[in-house]
Design a protein that fits this description.
The protein is α+β, with helices and mostly antiparallel strands. Helix content is 33%, strand content 27%. It has helices spanning 2-28, 354-357, 374-391, 394-425, 427-437, 441-455, 463-482, 506-520, 528-545, 550-583, and strands at 85-88, 92-97, 102-112, 120-126, 131-139, 155-156, 160-162, 167-170, 176-187, 192-201, 207-215, 221-231, 240-242, 245-247, 252-256, 263-265, 276-280, 283-287, 291-302, 308-309, 311-318, 324-329, 333-335, 340-351. Helix 4 packs parallel to helix 10 and helix 8 (506-520) packs antiparallel against helix 9.
C-alpha cells in the first residue's frame, strides 16, 4: 500500500509538470516567425520616424454595405495633405491620417517597449515592417468611403493636438475632466457636411469616434458607419525570448455579444470560420500579449433625439493582400434633407486592464484569458491587487499571497503532514516487517495494514498537499502570463521583471534546495529505485523552472519554505508523542 502511495505522489508531481508543459505549448508553442519584410524608405512631409500618410487603406478594404452604392457626390475638399494629425494625451501619442480618418499609429506612453528601453510600446503602426491600423468611416448609398475615387480627404483645423487644447467637462459625479476633441470635416458639392470627431478623455484609453452628418442638400442621405481593425500576420511585438523558449500568448481576433461573451478567432480562420453575427452590445477585437485593440459600436442620434444603441453586424475577412480584418457595420442611417444625424463607436487600444474593459462591453475583460482555471486565477489576481495596494510591490504581494494561501490550506495540509510524519516514525518498524516476512507479500501487506490502522496512518494523504497546490500553481502561471499589471514589474535586486525568467537562475536554484529539504522531511521510500527517483526530482524540477517566470518560482520557494516549517513542527510533535508512548 505504501509503495502505491509513493507512485501516486510521484505521478501527481509529473501531472503538474505535464499540465504546465501543455499550457506552455498552448500559449507559446505555435508562434511562427514571419519572414522579414524588406524595409522601404518612405518619403513624407513630417518625420522619418512617423508613419507615412500614404499608407491609408484602399477601397478594397472597405466592408460591403447592405444597400447599393450611388456615386452622385463629388469630392469638394482640398488636395490630399500628407501630414498626419498628431494627438498626445497623458496616455497616448497617436497619429490620424486625414485621408479616411484612420488611426495609423499609437504609442502607449505608460508602457515601455521592453524592460531595457525607455521607448514607448508601439501598439498600432503602418510602415514597411508592420500594418496594424484602426479604420472607420461611412459607407453605403451616400457614404464617402464607398466612393470609387478612394477614401475621403478631411479638412483639418491643425496638425497637432495636446491636452493643452482640451476643455474641462463635468462627469456624472460632478468631477471635472479634460476632454480633447479632434474634428475633421468633409464636404460634398451638393451640400452634405460630414464632421468626424475623435474625443479623448484625460486618464482614459477609450476613444469616442463620431460621425455627424449635416444634410443641407435637397435629397435624403443614406449611409452606414463601419469600424474595423486591419492587421497583417507579423509577430506579436509583446512577446519576449526567454532562453530556449519564446514567450507570447494568443495573437488573433476576438469578439463577443451579450449572449456569447467571449470568442477567439485565429487569423488563419478569418475566412474559413468567418464571423458574421448581428448583435446589440457586441464588440470585435485583435488580441495580443498583454494588449488589445477593440471596436465597440455606440449610438445613433437623429436630429435632436437622444442617442439609441444600435444593433451592429460583426464581421471578419481577409483582404486580397492577406490582411486580417475584423470589424462592425451599423444599420442604414437615413438623414432627410435639412436634418442632421450622428453615429458613434468606441475604440480601445491599450493594456488589458480588466477593471476598464469590463465597463466597455460585456465579455471584453475576458480577453485577459486565464484559461480553464479562471475562477481560481481571478481570486489570485484580486489577492495580488489587494496586497499590492498595501505594499506597492508585486514581488512582496506574491509572497504575502502565498502566505495567505498556505494559511487557508493549513488545516487540510496539517492532517496530511501529520500522517506522513507518523509514516516517517514507523519506517523502521516497516523495514523490520519487510525483513521478517521476506517474500511473503500477502502476510507483509496484512501486517502493514494492521500497523497503519493501529497508528492511524493514511498513506494516501501525502498526495493531498500537492493536489491542493496544483490548480493554484497553474492558475498563478496564467495570472503572471496574462496580467499586464505584472509586465516588467520589478521585485528587488536582480529581479526586474517578475513575468520573465530569473536572469541569474538564483530563484530556481533556491527552489530546488527548498524542495530537497522538504523531501528530506518526508518518509523515505523503502524501494531503492523509488528512493533514487525521489532524490533526482529536485534536480528535474530545478531545470524545469529555469525558464519559468520569476514570480512563479518565487511563489514555489515561499510555498516550500512554509511547508518545511510546517512539516518540521509536525514531525517534532509526532516524534515526542511516540517517545512518550514508548516510555509508558
Amino acid at each position: 500500500m505504501q509503495q502505491w502511495a509513493r507512485f501516486a505522489i510521484l505521478g501527481a508531481m509529473f501531472v503538474v509538470a505535464y499540465l504546465l508543459i501543455l499550457a506552455w505549448q498552448k500559449d507559446y508553442g505555435h508562434a511562427e516567425t514571419q519572414p522579414q519584410q524588406q524595409t522601404a524608405v518612405v518619403s513624407h512631409e513630417v518625420s522619418a520616424d512617423l508613419p507615412n500618410g500614404q499608407t491609408a487603406a484602399t477601397a478594397s478594404d472597405m466592408p460591403q454595405a447592405n444597400i447599393a452604392t450611388q456615386q452622385t457626390t463629388t469630392d469638394a475638399t482640398a488636395p490630399v495633405s500628407q501630414q498626419l494629425i498628431s494627438v498626445q494625451t497623458d496616455l497616448y501619442h497617436l497619429w490620424i491620417n486625414p485621408k479616411g480618418g484612420d488611426i495609423v499609429r499609437i504609442e502607449l506612453l505608460n508602457h515601455d517597449k521592453d524592460k531595457d528601453s525607455n521607448a514607448p510600446f508601439v501598439m498600432l503602426e503602418s510602415d514597411a515592417q508592420r500594418t496594424y491600423v484602426a479604420q472607420s468611416g461611412l459607407i453605403g448609398l451616400n457614404g464617402p468611403d464607398s466612393n470609387r475615387n478612394g477614401r475621403p480627404v478631411y479638412e483639418i483645423e491643425k496638425a497637432s493636438y495636446t491636452l493643452a487644447d482640451a476643455k474641462a467637462e463635468k462627469t456624472k459625479d460632478g468631477q471635472a475632466v479634460k476632454v480633447l476633441s479632434v474634428p475633421m470635416v468633409y464636404k460634398t458639392a451638393d451640400g452634405v457636411e460630414i464632421i468626424k470627431t475623435f474625443s479623448f478623455k484625460q486618464g482614459e484609453y477609450p476613444i469616442i469616434v463620431s460621425h455627424k452628418v449635416v444634410n443641407r442638400s435637397s435629397q435624403n442621405w443614406q449611409g452606414q458607419m463601419f469600424g474595423q481593425i486591419k492587421r497583417d500576420n507579423s509577430d506579436d511585438p509583446g512577446k519576449s525570448s526567454q532562453g530556449i523558449f519564446t514567450l507570447g500568448t494568443f495573437l488573433g481576433g476576438a469578439w463577443g455579444t451579450p449572449d456569447e461573451h467571449y470568442n477567439k478567432l485565429k487569423f488563419d480562420n478569418f475566412n474559413d470560420e468567418k464571423l458574421n453575427v448581428e448583435a446589440k452590445g457586441g464588440w470585435v477585437a485583435v488580441v495580443q500579449h498583454y494588449f488589445v485593440s477593440a471596436w465597440i459600436p455606440g449610438d445613433i442620434k437623429l436630429t435632436q433625439a437622444n442617442g439609441q444603441p444600435y444593433s451592429a453586424k460583426l464581421e471578419s475577412r481577409q483582404s486580397t493582400d492577406n490582411m486580417n480584418i475584423i470589424g462592425f457595420t451599423s444599420p442604414t442611417m437615413n438623414v432627410p434633407a435639412g436634418t442632421t444625424a450622428e453615429v458613434d463607436a468606441t475604440f480601445y487600444s491599450g493594456p488589458k486592464i480588466q477593471s476598464e474593459l469590463k465597463d466597455l462591453a460585456v465579455g471584453l475583460n475576458q480577453t485577459v484569458d486565464y484559461g480553464w482555471l479562471w475562477p481560481i486565477a481571478k481570486l489570485l489576481f484580486l489577492g495580488l491587487q489587494f496586497f499590492h495596494n498595501i505594499v506597492g510591490n508585486w514581488g512582496w504581494s506574491i509572497i504575502l499571497l502565498t502566505v495567505l494561501v498556505k494559511l487557508i490550506l493549513w488545516p487540510l495540509s496539517s492532517k496530511s503532514y501529520r500522517s506522513m510524519a507518523k509514516m516517517r516514525v514507523i519506517a523502521p518498524e516497516m523495514q523490520r516487517m519487510k525483513e521478517e516476512f521476506g517474500e511473503d507479500r500477502m502476510r507483509f501487506s496484512q501486517e502493514m495494514m494492521a500497523l497503519y490502522k493501529r497508528e492511524q496512518v493514511n498513506p494516501l494523504s501525502g498526495c493531498l498537499p500537492l493536489l491542493l497546490q496544483m490548480p493554484i500553481f497553474l492558475a498563478l502561471y496564467w495570472v503572471l502570463m496574462e496580467s499586464v499589471e505584472l509586465r516588467h514589474a520589478p521585485w528587488l535586486g536582480w529581479i526586474q521583471d517578475l513575468s520573465a525568467m530569473d536572469p541569474w537562475f538564483i530563484l530556481p536554484l533556491l527552489m530546488g534546495l527548498t524542495m530537497f529539504i522538504q523531501q528530506s522531511l518526508n518518509p523515505q521510500p523503502a524501494d531503492p529505485m523509488q528512493a533514487k527517483v525521489f532524490k533526482i526530482m529536485p534536480i528535474i524540477f530545478t531545470v524545469f523552472m529555469l525558464f519559468f517566470p520569476a514570480g512563479l518560482v518565487l511563489y514555489w520557494i515561499v510555498n516550500n519554505s512554509i511547508t518545511i516549517l510546517q512539516q518540521g513542527l509536525i514531525n517534532k510533535g509526532v516524534e515526542k508523542e511516540r517517545e512518550k508512548r514508548d516510555v509508558v
